[in-house]
Amino acid sequence: MSFLNTLSISGSGMTAQRLRLDVTANNIANIETTRTEDGGPYRRKMVILEAKEPSFQKVFENTLHEQQVYTEGKGVRVSAVIEDETELKPVYDPEHPDADAEGYVMMPNIDLVKETADAMAATQAYQANITAFNATKLMAQKALEIGR
């Protein structure tokens, strides 16, 4: 595996985790939003990540059955940002301008604890990719020093 390919894989991980953190921050910012352009309350967004080919499973199967050597990975990519379809939270607040006839306001389906945990996980994954990137960079520097 080339150094540039390894750096590219780490870079794809950093890009994906940065988007994941952006989406989480947007969810937190809209935790009280009861009106959107589409009408109704804000719905929680989730990032769907997928491995670029070859997948781990494919490499694992090839290694077991065909004794092929793993040559290159491609990293990760964001396949979609989707809306969470879980139920909205009804909150009794007859004074709210978006309250229905019975006094209930439909609030976003966002759980602050879950969003905080997602933000922490994205931050740790981002940091792990930086560590891998820096380790690869150090290996390349040491390889260049051998030639001196």
Structure explained in plain terms:
- By secondary structure, this protein is an alpha+beta fold.
- The chain has one domain.
- Helices cover 49% and strands 16% of the residues.
- It has three helices and four strands.
- The protein has helices at 3-29, 56-65, 112-146; strands at 45-51, 76-83, 89-92, 104-107.
- Strands 1-2 form a two-stranded antiparallel sheet.
- Helix 1 (3-29) runs antiparallel to helix 3 (112-146).
- The longest helix is centred in the C-terminal third of the chain and has 35 residues, at 112-146.
- The protein is elongated.
- The two termini are 23 Å apart.
- The relative contact order is 0.22.
- The model has no long low-confidence stretch (mean pLDDT 88).
- InterPro entries: Flag_bb_rod_N, Flagellar_basal_body_rod_CS, Flg_bb/hook_C_dom, FlgC.
- Residues 9-34 form the Flagellar basal body rod protein N-terminal domain.
Total number of strands: 4
Assembly annotation: single chain
Summed over residues and divided by their number, the pLDDT gives a mean of 88
Helix content: 40-55%
Which structural class matches the secondary elements? Answer: alpha+beta
Q: How many structural domains in the coordinates?
A: 1
Radius of gyration: 22 Å
How is the largest sheet built, in terms of strand order? 1-2
DSSP strand content: 15-25%
Number of DSSP helical runs: 3
Low-confidence stretches: none
Largest sheet: 2 strands, antiparallel
Order of helices and strands: HEHEEEH
End-to-end Cα distance: 23 Å
Net shape:
elongated
Family: Belongs to the flagella basal body rod proteins family.
Protein name: Flagellar basal-body rod protein FlgC
Pfam family, one: Flg_bbr_C
Keywords: Bacterial flagellum, Cell projection, Cilium, Flagellum
